[in-house]
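Human: Here is a favour to ask of a fellow structure person. Comparing notes only helps if you start from a blank page. I am asking you to supply a protein in sequence and structure-token form. Write it directly below this note and I will take it from there.

Assistant:
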Amino acid sequence: MANIKDVAKAAGVSTSTVSRTINNSSSIPAETKARITEIMKQLNYTPNQNAKSLTTNKSYTITLIVDVDDEKSFQNPFFYEIMHGIEKYVYNKEYSFIVANLKTMMKKQSVLDWLIRSKRTEGVILPSSMLDSKTVESLRKDKIPFVSIGEPIHLKDSITWVDIDNKRGAEVAVYSLLENGYKNIAYLGYDNTKLFNQRRYEGYLNVLESEKIKINPSYIIECNNTKDNGYNHTKTLLNLGNRPDAILCADGELSFGAIKAIQENGLSIPSDFGLISYDETKIAELSYPSISTVNVDMFEMGTQCAKLLFDQIENHQSINQGVLISASLNKRETTK
């Protein structure tokens, strides 16, 4: 394997010039940088990351903070899509990407404090559920760039965050149902403890209000995201005197139970009854009938989290901002 001396010899420069080129020093002319970079490629030379870190006093590492006790997050395939988006962006920046458990103790310190004090990370990405004023204050005090996955409830205007435009996604879904002739649309899966769910509910209400459609409280079902809940609550909806003719499911699992209840009731999907579910999954495409979904691009969400983090690291971007990723509608067999 070639080393830095081989590169310097081939380029006719000193090893310090090669080192400054690797670290993108402004003291090296662009032409010289380009020539040395090309020689590095020809010699298949890879800079020693540890040596680079010692030279620049940087770790070249980005950290995703997680809570391993939060089993629901790890069971959710979207979590790994977000990770994939982050990792790909970080890789293209030639940084390392690590995942750390918030509750791990390192030398009698929390893992977050340990990473910061020992300068083992250049920036942190973490779910909004883990952010509180104390954590934000600590990160700011130590001047550690950070980005929130998801819109925070209480700190929205004081941090940088990325989320799906859940409200707009629900609006697109409800408008689509109305345009296809469905008149009485229920909302299945309301959960006021989750901000993303509140935003979806807001979108549902917004369309009904703008179209001057009377809101029926019996059509709004509060429940957790499970197949059994989807089945049982849909049966309740279908037994109403003025039953709905369509459902917007706030989460994916609910739709599988809802479809079973609709079919057992003898209703034909989509001619008698329509259904759109939030969250695009492979199962939604492969199920029978295939499910119309609001597609949320979690890979792009991860990418944008990493991008905003590097804006802070490289450009010292201090403006707090919230970024919403647009949601699209995938029409399949559960809608006309």
Q: What stands out?
A: The chain has a mean pLDDT of 87.
